[in-house]
Fold this sequence. Notes:
The chain is 42% helix and 11% strand. By secondary structure, the chain is an alpha/beta fold. It has two domains: 8-171, Rossmann fold; 201-282, Conserved Hypothetical Protein Ylqf, Chain: A, domain 2, CATH 1.10.1580. It has a six-stranded mixed beta sheet with strand order 3-2-1-4-6-5, with helices on both faces. Strand 5 and strand 6 (167-171) form a beta hairpin. The radius of gyration is 21 Å and the shape is elongated. Mean pLDDT is 84; it is low at 148-156. This is Ribosome biogenesis GTPase A. Residues 13-178 form the CP-type G domain. Keywords: Cytoplasm, GTP-binding, Nucleotide-binding. One of its GO terms (biological process) is translation.
Amino acid sequence: MNINWYPGHMKKTRELLQSSLKLVDIVIELLDSRIPISSKNPDIDKIVNNKPRVVVMNKSDLSSEAGNKAWEEYYKKQNVPVVFINAINNMGTEKIIKKINNVLEEKMKQKQKKGIKSTSVRAMIVGVPNVGKSTLINSLAGRKGAKTGNRPGVTKGKQWIKLKGDIELLDTPGILWPKFDDENVALKLAFTGAIRDEILDTETLALKLIEKLHSIDKSLIENRYDIETSEKTPLEIMESIAEKRMCILKGGEVDYTRVSNLILDEFRKGVMGRITLDYPQED
Length: 283
């Protein structure tokens, strides 16, 4: 399975991040809590360097409780502030403002001692496409300040947005890295929608997802679709799901495209259950 997506604007985004870093006091790194390793751009660490950072785990309502706890412990050991949220329903988003103020409390006091009148905090948010940056920004701002969409790459350029708590936030486009050295990382990004479905073989992707979920816990698929999966190949499991969900063409043929889209959509919406695909020990 060949996954290679690095549009021209990604290079420009990297340059944008590097040039904008000196303008901000802190960086908010937004990750998908289902795939914290796979949704972490390895280039971000090099770009951000020693700048203060808060890691925000979005979509934590879709990841398992065990997974969330494991990652909370991991970042605690790394001495990195972390917040778990669901940006769509504002769950936990208020904690981000408090965490930023806590991290920068000493720096703000030093500014005041030096007689610097402006005590506004300037932050920059970074993350891969479709991780929920625009939704989070709108939640923090209390208004629709950033464009959102269900397709990766909606945010095209940088924009400053005023947030609650006297914070100015620099939004930036989502950034991937030039190539995927690990196919598993690429697949997990594709499972969650960070890579456009149009450039992939959707049926193969759905089969890979079935294989992955079955290896984690076969009951995830069995309970959702009321089927038996023991001794079945991923293709046979897909065909069983198609029969259950009436994804059948005239003549009795399986509509593989329809059932593949159904499986991917239901995983992304969390209706199969709360699932974490990346754990700290894999890092």
